[in-house]
Design a protein that fits this description.
A mainly beta, B mainly beta, C mainly beta, A: mainly beta, four-stranded antiparallel β-sheet, B: mainly beta, Double-stranded beta-helix, eleven-stranded antiparallel β-sheet
Chain lengths: ~220, ~230, ~230
């Protein structure tokens, strides 16, 4: 299987070439176009109960599609996301990463996709009780709204909740306010995530909430 | 005046402004633009200077809430993201008589020496019709503004006409007047949409003009059918 | 006329240079800026009928296209046009063949290009309940198409499948049918989010866009205050 992320960063699109026998799993609705020789199978995202949890709390769809090449020639599938923005291919290499709701697109290889408890504080912030988690050896494709910046946290770092996409699971996350309570209300800087520890994070340079807030004032 | 060191990432579609503040340096930032920052940067919200007085009657929902971000004790990094996809542009005000007129939704950040004012000659023209809101920035220091879509710098020679929804910023050495071109107005066609006034701004003289490549009312009109309806839960 | 495309591919703009007395037809609301001596007129094109200002038969489902005509009065001038969505623009030279275009992807065309509403190949429902509708373009001259996201052209020679929300335009030489992706049943296809796909067969070009306006509209629109 070969892949290329084209049209970065504005309209990142994943173009996958599947050799005979190859397959790739993607979230429901991700297919933009594909060669006529590919077969698509819809199934619950990682088992029925896991799918329910992911859907209700992790923000993902109940369903995923697996594209299989049952022909004897290479076939191409073009995968995309609902949001316009950047995409990253994350090689897990045995590590575990947590993903914000909605940013998972596809995966290939020996990857276990599950849900992890995110804590009540996460629910209060509107993020959902469970986070999507991926571990194992393989590649996870995720995307966001805006450009994606990778950063290594050593010590402490603060990220606005709408801008955090993915983070290595050994980082400790704490929800907080950006400033004082009054300050937060009048400034519009609401909830932030205080990250502590040592690990990799991915941030997006736009947030859907940011866009929504901007548009609300124009309505 | 200390200049603020900065970088702009992810241009031109999702430009993100990174301010590298020196120890105890402060930046004035639009509310809600903070995406990420070092933990020792302190935030204080404030209404800037004379803005409280000059705001007077605010147009539907437009507001300019500003926060002060200071890197306490040591240098710090501040990542700022505008709400809409697009570019970020830097401009330096040299403290002279020239000022920059910026669409208020496009203001991202400025250094403390810059004054922001909404009551200036010609401001009223923009108010007629859509909730267009322009700010005059003067003083000495850095200012950063954003666009929806890519920024085009258009060289004005003689006269040039721009749809008001696409204006990002312009130097006030240009003379300008807002008018309605009836041939562009959608008002007579009996449709309920945002915008469609046919308002344009006619520029004359010499100066720099920045225009954006996308317009917000088109986005709002497109999103409108997807909004939840009041009768649904 | 001369057409220059700027700021590709993220938020492309078309800069149209008109000769004296030359005209261009464009989607209403797409004018960014123009020389001061350009004259403008906006009208409503509904349903079948010849000519821009004529033909007012009401179309099914109330589909209509608002068009503006820009004319360089007495001397050459320029008009900058922008599409509604973030994305790219492609210039397609019409030379007598027929092209089916998604209504939201039409940006502008020379007056000698003929625009017909009411192509009834398939009715697509967007998640909002609104319908997409399709235009049949014929005639001669420049046609400007816009996309949500980047545009990619696929030279079909055999069979190619495209999710209907991702179709910008396709040549009429292709045969097409809507259906479910191979190997799935209707229920799973719908649940899998790929219920609305189009299967193209034969030879011809399909222009696809990388992103689906309906999906993005749902993502953002559902978070806005109720109307």
């Amino acid at each position: 299987m070969q892949y290329e992320i084209k049209y970065k960063p504005a309209f990142s699109t994943l173009v996958v070439s599947l050799a005979p026998g190859d397959s790739i799993t993607a979230e429901a609705g991700a297919m933009a176009s594909m060669d006529g020789g590919l077969t698509m199978k819809t199934h619950f995202f990682g088992g029925f109960f896991s799918a329910l949890l992911k859907s209700w709390f992790g923000g993902e769809s109940l369903f995923a599609n697996t594209f299989v090449n049952k022909s004897n020639k290479t076939q191409t599938v073009v995968l995309t996301q609902s949001s316009i923005g950047d995409m990253e291919a994350l090689e897990l290499r045995g590590r575990t990463f947590g993903f914000e709701s909605g940013c998972y697109i596809a995966h290939t290889g020996n990857v276990k996709i599950g849900v992890a408890w995110a804590g009540f504080q996460s629910w209060f912030s509107g993020e959902g009780l469970f986070k999507l988690q991926a571990s194992g050896n393989g590649t996870v494709f995720f995307g966001g709204y805006g450009g994606i910046t990778k950063r290594r946290v050593t010590g402490e770092f603060v990220v606005d909740t709408g801008h955090l996409l993915a983070y290595e699971s050994n980082l400790k996350l704490n929800l907080g306010m950006a400033g004082s309570l009054m300050g937060s209300i009048t400034s519009g800087e609401g909830l932030v995530m205080r990250l502590k520890g040592n690990g990799e994070i991915y941030m997006q340079s736009r947030s859907i909430d940011g866009l929504v807030n901007f548009l609300k004032s124009k309505l | 005046m200390n200049k603020i060191a900065f970088e702009i990432e992810h241009q031109p579609a999702y430009a993100s402004l990174i301010l590298n503040l020196q120890a105890n340096q402060t930046a004035i930032v639009e509310a809600g633009a903070m995406a990420a920052m070092d933990a020792h940067i302190q935030m204080k919200s404030k209404m800037k200077g004379g803005l409280m007085q000059s705001l007077g009657r605010m147009l539907a929902g437009e507001s300019l809430f500003l926060s002060e971000f200071t890197a306490v004790g040591k240098p710090g990094q501040l990542y700022l993201s505008p709400g809409v996809p697009g570019d970020v542009q830097h401009y330096y005000l040299d403290g002279g008589r020239n000022s920059l007129i910026v669409q208020s939704g496009g203001f991202v950040a400025a250094s403390p020496g810059v004054t922001l004012n909404t009551q200036f000659q010609g401001a009223k023209g923009f108010f007629s019709g859509e909730s267009l809101f322009m700010i005059q920035a003067s003083g000495q220091g850095d200012i950063w503004f954003s666009s929806y879509g890519a920024i085009l710098e258009i060289p004005v020679e003689n006269e040039f006409v721009v749809d008001t929804g696409y204006i990002v910023a312009f130097e006030d050495s240009l003379t300008y007047s807002v008018e309605m071109i009836s041939g562009l107005s959608m008002r007579g066609l009996g449709v309920a949409i945002f915008g469609g006034e046919g308002l344009v701004c006619r520029f004359r003289g010499s100066g720099r003009l920045w225009v954006q490549s996308r317009e917000l009312f088109n986005l709002l009109n497109f999103l409108n059918p997807f909004r939840p309806t009041k009768s649904s839960d | 006329m001369e057409i220059q495309l700027l700021q590709q591919p993220d938020s492309a703009i078309a800069k149209v240079l008109l000769e004296r007395d030359e005209e261009i037809v464009a989607e209403a609301g797409s004018m960014v800026a123009m020389s001061s001596h350009i004259g403008a007129n906006t009208t409503l094109k509904q349903g079948k009928g010849g000519g821009l200002l004529g033909g007012l038969k009401r179309m099914l489902g109330g589909e209509s296209l608002f068009l503006s005509v820009y004319r360089a009065l007495s001397k050459p001038g320029e008009v900058y046009l922008a599409p509604d969505f973030m994305g790219d623009i492609v210039v397609y030279p019409m030379a007598g063949q027929e092209l089916v275009v998604q209504s939201g992807s039409y940006l502008a065309s020379a007056p000698s290009v003929h625009i017909d509403l009411g192509f009834l190949g398939f009715k697509q429902a967007l998640l909002s309940g609104e319908s997409l509708f399709w235009l049949t373009i014929s005639g001669y001259g420049e046609l400007l198409l816009s996309s949500f996201g980047a545009i990619y052209a696929v030279e079909v020679d055999g069979e190619y499948i495209v999710d209907t929300g991702h179709i910008v335009a396709f040549e009429r030489s292709l045969t097409f049918d809507t259906g479910k992706p191979p190997g799935s049943n209707w229920l799973s296809a719908f649940l899998g989010g790929e219920g609305f796909i189009c299967r193209f067969k034969g030879r011809g070009t399909v222009y696809c866009q990388t992103h689906n306006p309906g999906a993005f509209g749902q993502l953002v629109g559902s978070k806005l205050p109720p109307r």
